[in-house]
Design a protein that fits this description.
This protein is mainly α. It has 21 helices and 4 strands.
């Protein structure tokens, strides 16, 4: 008759183990007998069976321990492994457990130990331990595709087993999947950092004018915190567009008269005042001056307002210097100050980059370029190689043609760059048959080269844009729920109608 065991008093007690065979086996018989995850060695506890067998458990005889097998309970499932098998891997956790003779060291390797059953308990995943169990029996670590790489690596590191024991094909696929998961988690972390503001509101606690600086910070940096913050964000984009339009109109010949210049200067002054106020508010509300200077958007804001003040500095020199410069302007070959002023005015074009602070598409494009910089650099490298190669080929076959434009390799760089980009201005064309064949190969190579990274960049851009847009929509929805402008307007109208005496007639 099968001998029943008492219910375990340890963690996750859910097993009833029977006597398999009724006799003790030699180590060789045990090694050949124990299969991989044999169901007869793993039996779940049944509460009704425990009630039915309650009378037999009272008359239970003392347990006969098997000195050749190690009883391991992993998450409620019992596994039996021969000591001799475990001793073959002494650096693993179970190998140390089989070789150690000190009970204190053994207890440090497991989570619990039941003296009555001579059973070592491990609070780990039993489904993954099936593969650990198979490793001790066969010497090969199985890796399944449906497993989570992070969880599997954590488990085998706990048991002290290295991934090198798996087959090479499985290990390569597993490492690729692990790298993809790591890259995905890295991108998700960077995307969350892109979505979240640079500073949180808790950083102002305990600082000088912390409450006031927090309010200013929410107005400038978090457009979804309140209605005034959203209005300021819209005004910032509006002034950027006005500034760009003003700079464009200032180059029109009809706007270069006295009246047009006056209007353009006033418009530029208003935009510069707004941008300066915005920059100072960000500077005041920043919790760390060092981080403020290192931020890319703040550097763009500074570049956007510097041209205005540098231009004022140059234009308001003392009278002597002004007269000197005016005389210099009369000389055609000496106009360095005018060129500097034109260059400074041209720097105002960088104000359009301020739109990236409030534009989801520009932020997604910038994030895509940062994540795909390796592919972009590789594309530029291929383009440079193509330009140098095909410019040298076209020069070698066209330099003897009278009146040719390919007089040198540097002169052929423009033709090669235009052909690789498949633009084809037609200002420079080959005349010989060999030259046209080189041009055909150059254009074909450009088509293949331009088509390679498009799918990668587009897929990543669309993915990042969708995530940024979803986050923006969620924040906008939260703001609209707090405002409830429509309900408030309807309530005000209803109150006005009820207050009107004609409403009851």
């Amino acid at each position: 008759m099968r001998q029943q065991w008492t219910r375990r008093a340890s963690l996750s007690a859910s097993l009833k183990i029977g006597d398999h065979g009724g006799r003790c086996r030699t180590p060789e018989e045990e090694e050949s007998y124990i299969p991989f995850a044999q169901d007869s060695l793993i039996r779940q506890w049944n509460s009704m069976q425990n009630v039915a067998d309650g009378y037999q458990e009272k008359n239970q005889t003392p347990i006969q321990r098997n000195k050749y097998l190690l009883n391991i309970n992993v998450g409620g499932k019992l596994f039996q492994i021969a000591y001799k098998v475990l001793a073959q891997y002494p650096i693993t956790r179970l190998g140390k457990l089989a070789l150690y003779t000190d009970p204190v060291k053994k207890l440090q390797l497991c989570d619990d130990y039941l003296v009555q059953k001579n059973e070592y308990f491990f609070d780990r995943d039993p489904s993954i331990f099936h593969y650990i169990f198979h490793f001790y029996r066969s010497g090969v670590l199985w890796v399944m595709d449906e497993m989570c790489p992070s969880n599997f690596v954590e488990e085998i590191e706990y048991w002290g087993i290295h991934l090198k024991y798996s087959q090479r094909c499985c290990r390569i696929l597993f490492e690729e999947k692990q790298d993809e998961l790591s890259e995905y988690l890295k991108i998700e972390k960077e995307l969350e950092a892109e979505l979240e503001p640079m500073e949180s509101g808790t950083q102002f606690d305990g600082k000088f004018l912390g409450r006031f600086r927090k309010i200013v910070w929410n107005l400038i940096e978090n457009p979804y915190s309140s209605v005034p913050a959203k209005i300021i964000a819209v005004m910032s984009s509006f002034f950027v567009l006005i500034s760009i339009v003003g700079m464009t109109l200032s180059t029109v010949e009809e706007m270069k008269n006295k009246t047009g210049k006056m209007w353009m200067e006033q418009m530029e002054m208003i935009c510069a005042i707004f941008f300066t106020s915005e920059y100072l508010m960000r500077l005041i509300s920043s919790s760390s001056f060092k981080n403020f200077l290192r931020a890319a958007f703040n550097a763009i804001d500074l570049v956007a307002i510097l041209p205005f003040y540098i231009q004022i500095l140059f234009e308001n020199l003392d009278d002597g210097e002004m007269q000197y410069h005016e005389e210099l302007h009369k000389v055609e070959n000496v106009s360095k100050l005018g060129k500097v002023l034109k260059l400074i005015k041209l720097m105002r074009i960088f104000r359009i980059l301020k739109l990236a602070r409030h534009s989801t598409g520009l932020r997604a494009f910038s994030f895509t370029m940062r994540q795909c910089y390796q592919q972009v650099c590789c594309l530029l490298l291929f383009i440079a190689m193509g330009v140098f190669t095909f410019s040298a080929l076209i020069h070698s076959v066209e330099h003897d043609v009278p009146g040719t434009d390919f007089t040198s390799i540097p002169c052929a760089w423009w033709w090669a760059a235009v052909s690789l980009s498949t633009v084809g201005y037609g200002d420079t064309v080959p005349d010989t048959i060999l030259g046209r064949m080189v041009a055909f190969v150059c254009i074909s190579f450009g088509i293949i080269l331009n088509g390679m990274p498009i799918s990668i960049l587009y897929n990543k851009f669309s993915d990042y844009y969708a995530k940024l847009k979803a986050h923006e929509m969620s924040q906008s929805l939260q703001l609209s729920r707090r405002i409830r402008l429509k309900q408030r307007v309807l309530r005000k109208f209803s109150e006005c109608w009820r207050a009107d005496p004609h409403y009851y007639r």
